[in-house]
């Protein structure tokens, strides 16, 4: 097993360890697998560390399509380029990189525009394969296919990622901080910064103070919001939220005979300028929209709801309120340009990352990371591949 990137493995399969999910909801099994060399426009990466995101847990529990097993989960990571496929010139062997689930091809009309991060050439989908070639790079020792997750699959010592899902980064930043910008923190900060374009002096309401909601608070703080209201059922989240700029707290379970939106409308004197739904519930989207200020308010959907969920809004209210309702995939970030900006802001001590890491474990203890997140005891648990 090669522990360091080496030209000796260029173009050859690599045997390494991976945490494989064989059945929904069952503990991951660390086993030896084979990782094929990268095809055209692909990069093979040695993962240094990875963190656990709630999306991994959601799909790990899921029994129906798009769930598929056996699968290698993980999509927040930092790694070192081991080798590249034909046509790759953005990175080379030894480069420090961050993989990400949203494509940034740099070629289509959307990727060339400042208005969107929704790539047309390689549109987002929950696929079990590589994005461009629609095949897997993983097999177990019996030769059976192991499926990919969100085009990253970082719960493996080596993985293969399309170049549209990789950006080169500053190697001087600690890996256990860099990996956080691969998905969760970037999504929340980006939702406030890029999607909503939160203005200085504005009022923000955030529904759900998990990692994403706290990252939204951090983004709103960076943008200069003066009132940041956190909404959650757990009162302990207020003290945690204060670290990221939350100024007021609404316990959604203790609003008496009022709705959460009525309470927020009273606090803000007519509604928040920006409302963020970070849980993934249609009912909360409607509550967020209801306490979004008429005339100019924006409601941004960040949480991932279950497939088939529907929103029900009054056509009269939509017409007469002048509000905006919008979604935010990966915080509206263009990964290859915006992730380096966020890392620079971390280096400049503007962006908080350290506070998101509550636990760190060895790769052998990856199931402990799942337990911590499921019990609500961690924000981000970093998993080190070689410690």
Automatic annotation (TrEMBL):
Q: Which cofactor does it need?
A: Zn(2+)
Q: Which InterPro entries match?
A: ADH-like_C, ADH-like_N, ADH_Zn_CS, GroES-like_sf, NAD(P)-bd_dom_sf
Extract the GO molecular function terms from the UniProt entry: alcohol dehydrogenase (NAD+) activity; S-(hydroxymethyl)glutathione dehydrogenase [NAD(P)+] activity; zinc ion binding
**EC primary class:** oxidoreductase
Q: Which Gene3D superfamilies would you find in this protein's record?
A: Medium-chain alcohol dehydrogenases, catalytic domain, NAD(P)-binding Rossmann-like Domain
One GO cellular component assignment for this chain's record is: cytosol
Which family would the database say this protein is a member of? Belongs to the zinc-containing alcohol dehydrogenase family. Class-III subfamily.
- What is the name of this protein? alcohol dehydrogenase
Source organism (scientific name): Juglans regia (English walnut)
Name of the encoding gene: LOC108984517
């Amino acid at each position: 097993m090669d522990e360091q990137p080496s030209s000796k493995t260029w173009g050859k399969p690599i045997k390494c360890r991976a945490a494989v999910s064989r059945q929904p909801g069952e503990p991951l099994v660390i086993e030896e697998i084979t990782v094929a060399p990268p095809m055209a426009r692909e990069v093979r990466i040695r993962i240094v560390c990875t963190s656990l995101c709630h999306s991994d847990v959601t799909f790990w529990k899921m029994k129906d399509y798009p769930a598929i097993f056996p699968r290698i989960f993980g999509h927040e990571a930092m790694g070192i380029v081991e080798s590249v496929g034909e046509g790759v010139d953005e990175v080379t062997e030894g480069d420090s990189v961050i993989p990400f689930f949203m494509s940034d091809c740099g070629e289509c009309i959307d990727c060339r525009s400042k208005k969107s991060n929704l790539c047309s050439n390689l549109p987002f989908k929950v696929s079990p394969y590589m994005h461009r070639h629609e095949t897997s790079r993983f097999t177990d020792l019996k030769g059976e296919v192991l499926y990919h997750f969100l085009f990253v699959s970082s719960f493996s010592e080596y993985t293969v990622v399309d170049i549209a899902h990789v950006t080169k980064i500053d190697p001087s930043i600690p890996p256990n901080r860099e990996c956080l910008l691969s998905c969760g923190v970037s999504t929340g900060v980006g939702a406030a910064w890029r999607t909503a374009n939160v203005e200085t002096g504005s009022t923000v309401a955030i529904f759900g103070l998990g990692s994403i909601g706290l990252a939204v608070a951090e983004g709103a703080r960076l943008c200069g919001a003066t009132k940041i209201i956190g909404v959650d059922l757990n009162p302990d989240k207020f003290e945690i939220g204060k670290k990221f700029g939350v100024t007021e707290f609404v316990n959604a379970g203790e609003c008496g005979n009022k709705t959460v939106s009525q309470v927020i409308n009273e606090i803000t004197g007519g509604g928040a300028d920006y409302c963020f739904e970070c849980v993934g519930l249609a009912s909360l989207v409607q509550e967020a929209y209801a306490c979004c200020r008429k005339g100019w308010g924006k409601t941004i959907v960040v949480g991932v709801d279950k497939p088939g969920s529907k929103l029900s809004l009054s056509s009269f209210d939509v017409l007469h309120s002048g509000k905006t309702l919008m979604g935010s995939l990966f915080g509206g970030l263009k990964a290859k340009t915006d992730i380096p900006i966020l890392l620079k802001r971390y280096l400049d001590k503007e962006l908080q990352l350290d506070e998101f890491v509550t636990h760190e474990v060895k790769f052998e203890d990856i199931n402990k990371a799942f337990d911590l997140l499921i019990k609500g005891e961690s924000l981000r648990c970093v998993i080190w591949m070689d410690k």
